Recover the amino acids of this structure.
């Protein structure tokens, strides 16, 4: 009797300890190899899952790492202002009218075709004018001039430390210009006082662009310098491997820089990080134009339109170069694609002459002049010709779209105004000499610098 209860208690304690300290199923005596195999299978499956996840992550990083902005530059090399050379009412702020280079002003105060005055400037001046608030600015042989557009009187003259043949850029009350003696200079637009001078390592022969507080200056040595518009300090510099075709175009967080070697570089406008490269088969001599998700390039008289949002995956550019070279050498390969991101191409031929200058881009059409003396309107979606108008003499400068009017300069010194909807000629002015560069347009006036050293004001 006494032993019965004791025996029962020991058994209960043993069962309690066993349940409290249970041994894994696979380690218990009597468990067969099938249970061990199941556990190993589960381990293998987990390892395989993690391997797949790792591969997916690596592919995502590989594809997107080139498009992640440099955090160090974003944090510590940002401009201290927001100046932009955008043409507002009464302004023509830089070559092409804006950092996008569209040669378009939506303001519809149309000139009447009356020559107000011809201002003697300098036969050595190769620059073209910009204008704002009734003042015209033009650079030249080691000097910058500010002229009252109403009276023709000089407001100020400022010596600069080298020939300035590019079109100056006007932004936030300051003028910015590059010179042939390796300088980029900022002047106060009101007084001509020098604000800062940036020294590079090769000449800056063309126009600078200004957007979001950054001055973008392309050099003959093959670099684009990003300079703080407020201080003149260098923010960053990127190489193009050949001379930059100025100005660059800046739009939607991207910088578009053409090189003389025939490559269009697309980079992050705030950091200079790579986005894409578009390789052409010929040297580029005209700057890019960007609008509405498309970037336009002139190439051997043709006009090409590319997707401005193209991204270059790692290794694509190098593989395309190898493919193209092997194909040229006669290897049995399919012919390489013409250009990545190409939307359309319009080549000169029987229907249209060679395009010589960057287009004017409006919401519904592109307008270009040709070497055969034509003005051509194109559909930006597909490059189809909407209309063309023959004017006889070759077109000498980019066409400007000012409201509903096209302003066209020809090599015989004629400047014409054409209704861009009806193609009717509104007026024609004959100057004594052909223009020396792009026209300017502001406050209903046309500004034309001619090869004989005069600047004409046409209202």
């Amino acid at each position: 009797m006494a032993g019965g209860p004791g025996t029962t208690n020991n058994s209960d304690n043993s069962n309690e300890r066993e349940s409290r300290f249970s041994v894994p199923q696979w380690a218990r005596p009597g468990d067969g190899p099938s249970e061990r195999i199941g556990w190993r299978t589960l381990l293998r499956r987990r390892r395989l899952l993690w391997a797949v996840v790792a591969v997916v992550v690596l592919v995502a990083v590989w594809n997107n790492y080139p498009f992640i902005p440099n955090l160090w530059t974003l944090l510590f090399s940002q401009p201290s202002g927001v100046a932009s050379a955008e043409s507002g009412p009464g302004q023509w702020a830089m070559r092409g009218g804006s950092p996008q280079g569209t040669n378009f002003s939506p303001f519809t105060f149309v000139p009447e075709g009356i020559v107000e005055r011809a201002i003697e400037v300098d036969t050595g001046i190769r620059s073209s004018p910009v204008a704002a608030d009734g003042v015209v600015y033009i650079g030249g042989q080691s000097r910058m001039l500010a002229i009252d557009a109403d009276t023709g009187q000089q407001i100020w003259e400022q010596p600069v430390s080298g020939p300035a043949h590019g079109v100056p850029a006007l932004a936030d009350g300051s003028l910015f210009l590059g010179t042939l003696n390796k300088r980029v200079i900022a002047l106060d637009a009101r007084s001509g006082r020098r604000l800062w001078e940036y020294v590079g390592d090769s000449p800056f022969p063309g126009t600078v662009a200004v957007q979001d507080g950054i001055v973008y200056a392309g050099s003959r040595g093959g670099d684009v310098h990003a300079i703080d518009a407020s201080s003149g300090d260098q923010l960053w510099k990127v190489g193009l491997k050949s001379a930059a075709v100025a100005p660059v175009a800046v739009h939607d967080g991207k910088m578009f820089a053409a090189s003389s070697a025939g490559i269009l570089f697309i980079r992050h406008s705030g950091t200079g990080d790579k986005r894409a490269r578009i390789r052409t088969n010929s040297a580029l001599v005209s700057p890019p134009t960007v609008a509405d998700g498309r970037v336009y390039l002139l190439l051997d008289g043709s006009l090409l339109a590319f997707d401005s949002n193209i991204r270059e995956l790692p290794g694509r550019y190098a593989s395309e170069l190898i493919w193209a070279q092997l194909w040229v050498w006669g290897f049995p390969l399919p012919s390489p694609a013409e250009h990545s991101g190409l939307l359309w191409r319009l080549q000169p031929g029987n229907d249209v002459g060679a395009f010589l200058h960057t287009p004017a881009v409006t919401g519904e059409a592109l307008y270009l002049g040709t070497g055969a003396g034509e003005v051509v309107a194109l559909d930006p979606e597909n490059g189809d010709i909407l209309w063309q108008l023959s004017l006889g003499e070759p077109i000498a400068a980019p066409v400007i779209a000012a409201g509903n009017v096209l302003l066209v300069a020809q090599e015989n010194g004629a400047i014409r105004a054409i209704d861009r909807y009806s193609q009717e000629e509104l007026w024609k002015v004959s100057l004594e000499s052909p223009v020396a560069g792009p026209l300017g347009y502001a406050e209903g006036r046309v500004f034309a610098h001619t090869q004989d050293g005069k600047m004409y004001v046409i209202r």
User: Anything to note?
Assistant: The radius of gyration is 32 Å.
